[in-house]
Amino acid sequence: MHAMNTTKHRLTLADYLLAALLVLITIVCIAPIWHTIAISLSDKSAVEGGKVLFLPVDFTWNAYLKILDDGKFFRAFAISIERVALGAGIQFIITVLMAYPLALNSREFAGRNVYMWIIVFTMLFGGGLIPWYLVIKSLGMINSIWALVIPGAVPVFNIILVMNFLRNLPKELKEAAYIDGAGPWYLLLRIYIPLAVPALATVTLFSIVSHWNDFFQGLILMSKPENYPLQTYIQQLVVQIDLNETDSVKLEELAKLSNKSLNAAKIFVTIIPVLIVYPFLQRYFIHGITLGSVKE
């Protein structure tokens, strides 16, 4: 019996090949990030000479010190945190409140098909950049945090994912709840939302990453640098290096700093929050996006 169990668990050539493939994929995914970190910690001459691969050459913190040497960085970081909290929160509420009625059939929600066509239409067609900007300006949101939050408050793709997830839940749950006297709000808050945690965690991750990584809206909608979110601030950091700087100490710092090192440092700094958040939501990701993408 023991010999049979040993044979049953013996690794085959296919297992070794699969493990080797997974290790290779892991290395391919990690290598660019590792290379970026090495460049950000290397001296200008080594970076410009192409000597940096996966280990820092002439280790230095100059690139990170340049990012952190004034309060603008921390202000931009706080604005991005506020943007993510408000943006992801508003998108979560709107996604749930729109996906729930759209998950009902036409008999339960009259006009459902009309609303679905309107939603799909907004995915396929847009008014363009200039009308988009003029609408936001006419609403008086320029240079405010709401300009970064309200224009993307209705995430159509996320709504469709959650809607399809809810439609795939057993109909017997809803029928049993109605028989017991539950209303629509009770059904949503006590049954549907707890069961839809994988889908909601997935779309929340999409919202967080989208708001955190976006720099273009801050560049267009913020005319004052002190209102820039972090991504916009870092994007402008290299562009706005003051070449007329008269302070000899700062000139010496700029002479030691490579644009490649600075770009690598800003890339690494901006991915740290996502790396922190992702492990907590990753276990829901595959399950949520798979079930949410299946149409009944």
From TrEMBL:
The keyword Glycoprotein does not apply. GO terms for cellular component: plasma membrane. InterPro entries: MetI-like (IPR000515), MetI-like_sf (IPR035906). It is found in: Cell membrane. The chain crosses the membrane at residues 12-34, 84-102, 114-133, 145-166, 187-209, 264-281. The keyword Hydrolase does not apply. One of its GO terms (biological process) is transmembrane transport. Residues 77-281 form the ABC transmembrane type-1 domain. Keywords: Cell membrane, Membrane, Transmembrane, Transmembrane helix, Transport. Pfam families: BPD_transp_1. It is a multi-pass membrane protein. Coiled coil: none annotated. Belongs to the binding-protein-dependent transport system permease family. This is Carbohydrate ABC transporter permease.
